[in-house]
Amino acid sequence: MSLILGALLACAAGLAGTILCPDETGRRSRLPLLAALLAGGLAWHAPAQAGETLRGPARVLDGETVVVGVSRISLYGIVAPDADQTCSDTQDRPYACGRTAARALKDHIGGAIIACEPRSGTAGGAVEAICRVGDEDLGAWMVGRGYAVPDRTHGLDYTKAAERAWGQHLGLWSGVFQDPAERRIRQVDVVPAT
Q1: Is residue 46 over pLDDT 50?
Q2: In angstroms, rounded to a whole number, what is the distance separating the alpha carbons of residues 153 and 170?
């Protein structure tokens, strides 16, 4: 809910409560106004809904997850290696491709303000959103540099960006890696022995 809408709702509720709820001395109580202001403030800090753009500096958690304000956001349409995932380079040496992807995203955003447009879903408790720095789609940038792969379950098509990264042997495509989406599925399928 936007700040303006939250403030308007809080004011309307407070005014109605003050008029309709006098205290025992006959004077108007301020308690409903305070409650309404608190509710408006909470509504302003509520998680984003589809269609509501979140703007602000980003804190990068991994190659596909950022935090803007109090909202945890998953970049819509991509799958990046998990923070603990390792891949192999061209000489078959292991490297921390999950941390490399996160660092690349962090470095690319720098101190810029990002704008995220939430979509209807959530991923692991994070709001799925298309995030941009200026006009640049961060998901497309991550796939185009080989730090992530397209999420084939979503409507966005980053296939051409992935093909370019593959053709130029960028990022993950410079060596051998397990598809991050397949890796997550296999990790869920592994049931620990009891």
Answers
A1: no
A2: 23
